[in-house]
């Protein structure tokens, strides 16, 4: 009996949370045109979420690329086709690893920062103060941060993939001795515009999702120290799961 | 029933805020249960009462941050419940509010915090804007601190900056939520004097929520004492101090026991002591 009641309660909570997200997303999107006349606010957030995440993205991209170089070489060598290493690395990075790993790192680095910042603004009455100054916090605080994330994510994913290919080349060509001519020419022949677009679409969608989840969790944080901490954790957990889930859906649709 | 003790002599008669039969509850628990009172133009009105009697809730109802369950809140002749969001925002431009901890925007320095409402609502040229902001900072004595960040300010300074920000749009109504909490005696004296001086110099109407009886009664024209969601006394500070109603006396003179009991309701002592797990 109690189990059934608990199940019903958590189901209700889940439905309510999906509804809350949908309504919030609609309000944010409706407020986007109002925020456009002030690009300065958005650019500051592209810097905050994008530029400040560059180091972690570039380092991770390099190591992921290097691992791809090693594993790819080992795998392809078994079929005697190690010249295809360039193609394999580029396709896996552009279509899959670039957008997904970047989104996970983005949720961890930029998403948590966003959720904590907005949660603290809520806890210290800054959002209420804006309301009292007849300034809509949604337009002034939330939308610029959301747009900043939406713009920054695809750029970060592109940088990640580029550095990753460089890392794969570093291991495959410089260390394992794959012929550089084969490495690059096969990559150029095999990778099509559609592959690049697939990655771009994915990273844009992930950027929107991660940013939305981060600002939602921060905006709805319980206004205490504990509440802000919980909102930060929730933002990264939810974003990570959603990114992987949506990645599957998008791949299934676009393949 | 509100025992109206005395009509204040100085205050002009017309009301800026008029509250009638106001009810508000959270999760079925009544916070306000039939509050009636008025705030007269150009007066300093203190809303006092023990912690948890709904003072801050009352402020949030007056500013339209909350909607009442029943009853009416009228500000400057407008019924808040009937206002659209845009009309409410327009009304709020004529109100300034000082939050408990100041609520300064932590990513902006003192100058930009005070300039914030101007930048959001006006297109003033930078020179004029600077002039306005510096004047307001001068009024609270913090012109020299204009480049400090909120984290570098003491509690009292932060509240004075927030006060400068609250008056930067030249509001007609200024609302203070617990402005004395956690202030040292010097800062407290400064804030107290500012409340009176700003009210008189700028021709404002001030509403101060506080439970610091001695401090606030020194500057208020009119006091309103809330207890368990109702107004139990209203009138000039002196009348409240002279009142011999038990609940008013207990609060005004800070008596530890009275109608508000010292002890939280508890079961029989012997029974509770015998209960060992």
Structure description:
The complex is a heterodimer of chains A (255) and B (277). The longest helix of chain A has 39 residues, at 85-123. In chain A, helix 1 packs across helix 6 (137-175), helix 2 packs across helix 6 (137-175) and helix 8 packs antiparallel against helix 9. The mean pLDDT of chain A is 94. With 255 residues, chain A is an all-alpha fold. Chain A has one domain (42-254). Chain A contains nine helices and no strands. Chain A has helices spanning 2-35, 39-49, 54-78, 85-123, 126-132, 137-175, 180-190, 193-219, 225-254. In chain A, 87% of the residues lie in helices and 0% in strands. Chain B has 277 residues and is α/β, with parallel strands linked by helices. Chain B has a domain at 1-94 and 202-277: P-loop containing nucleotide triphosphate hydrolases (Rossmann fold). Chain B is built from ten helices and ten strands. Chain B has a six-stranded mixed β-sheet with strand order 6-7-8-3-9-10, with helices on both faces. A four-stranded antiparallel β-sheet of chain B has the order 2-1-4-5, with helices on one face. In chain B, a hairpin with a 2-residue loop joins strand 1 and strand 2. The longest helix of chain B has 18 residues, at 185-202. The N and C termini of chain B lie far apart (48 Å).
SSE layout:
The complex is a heterodimer of chains A (255) and B (277).
Chain A: H1 2-35, H2 39-49, H3 54-78, H4 85-123, H5 126-132, H6 137-175, H7 180-190, H8 193-219, H9 225-254
Chain B: E1 15-26, E2 29-40, E3 44-48, H1 55-62, E4 70-75, E5 78-79, H2 85-92, E6 95-98, H3 110-121, H4 126-139, H5 155-167, E7 173-177, H6 185-202, E8 205-209, H7 213-219, E9 222-227, E10 230-235, H8 237-242, H9 246-252, H10 269-274
Parallel strand pairs in B: 3-8, 3-9, 6-7, 7-8
Antiparallel strand pairs in B: 1-2, 1-4, 4-5, 9-10
Helix pairs in contact in B: 3-4, 3-5, 4-5, 5-6
